[in-house]
Specification:
mainly alpha; 3-stranded antiparallel sheet; 12 helices
Length: about 280
């Protein structure tokens, strides 16, 4: 979560299923991201930033094409030609420009990842949890749901046809990518003394690396005009390979008066309360 360049590779590179196990086969994703598409704002922004600034200058059109390629869903044989004004969802024409993001048949990176995940679970029931063995049933309608979501992403930001609140658009993602700039490695080393302090402050039931990562993420992302930092909870869940981060760890840290959190419309922000963080 601190090394954005490493995170970019996790969203665009090849997944090594040969060495995967029940803790790693989903990589930087979890099932909320695959079935409900929660947490994809950060993923798409990281992808956009990685391609927008590859040549040193902001290339918005290239970044948008990369997003389209990454999100591509192959057309069904029974699909009718798109009517005028309808959004395309099969971007196989971008294969030559982004061969790592979409193949010649229109299978985008994310679509392919989900299909490979389904295959992995079915072929390796001994390498996944008993709970996860039932997940392929939840992904049966993925292609249709993802196709609708990709169409939504392409609706212009201020379109009069937009329905619903807090929808994600490619325009939002590209704007965030411009503001945040090139990908960075924000990770840094803590002193042994501070590390020991953090470990000693970690409440029972929370892994020490959770508090250490939260501390470093806060320091790396805090702005001068506020004490609050936006926390991408779902992405942290995926990073730690567990749903316990958002559902249990944050609450335990809050009860221990180490952090304070505020959640509104699914967005969490936090600040550090303890004197150790002053």
């Amino acid at each position: 979560m601190l090394n954005e360049k490493e995170e970019f590779l996790a969203y665009t590179g090849k997944i090594d299923y040969q060495t995967a196990d029940k803790h790693t086969y989903l990589g930087r994703f979890n099932f909320d991201m695959l079935t409900k598409f929660i947490g994809l704002t950060r993923v798409l922004t990281i992808v956009a930033r990685g391609y927008m600034y590859e040549n040193g200058k902001a290339d918005i059109e290239r970044a948008k094409n990369a997003l389209c390629a990454w999100c591509s869903v192959p057309n069904k044989k029974t699909d009718q030609p798109k009517k005028e004004g309808q959004s395309e969802t099969d971007f196989r024409q971008l294969h030559e420009q982004f061969p790592e993001l979409v193949d010649s048949n229109g299978n985008g990176w994310f679509y392919t990842f989900v299909q490979n995940t389904i295959i992995f679970i079915k072929d390796n029931p001994d390498k996944v949890s008993k709970y996860d063995r039932q997940k392929p049933d939840n992904l049966k309608g993925f292609a249709s749901a993802w196709r609708k979501k990709v169409m939504q992403y392409q609706v212009p930001l201020y379109s009069s046809k937009t329905q619903g609140s807090f929808l994600i658009h490619f325009d939002d993602i590209l704007a965030d990518a411009l503001v945040q700039g090139e990908l960075k490695n924000k990770d840094f080393e803590l002193s042994p003394e501070l590390t020991e302090q953090l470990i000693s402050k970690t409440p029972k039931g929370v892994k020490p690396e959770v508090l250490i990562t939260l501390y470093k993420y806060y320091i790396a992302n805090k702005q001068d005009n506020t004490d609050w930092v936006i926390l991408p909870v779902t992405n942290f869940d995926a990073y730690f390979g567990t749903t316990a981060f958002g559902r249990r760890y944050l609450q335990l840290l809050k009860e221990a008066n180490i952090i304070e959190t505020q959640t509104s419309y699914g967005v969490c922000r936090y600040r550090l309360n303890n004197d150790i963080f002053a």
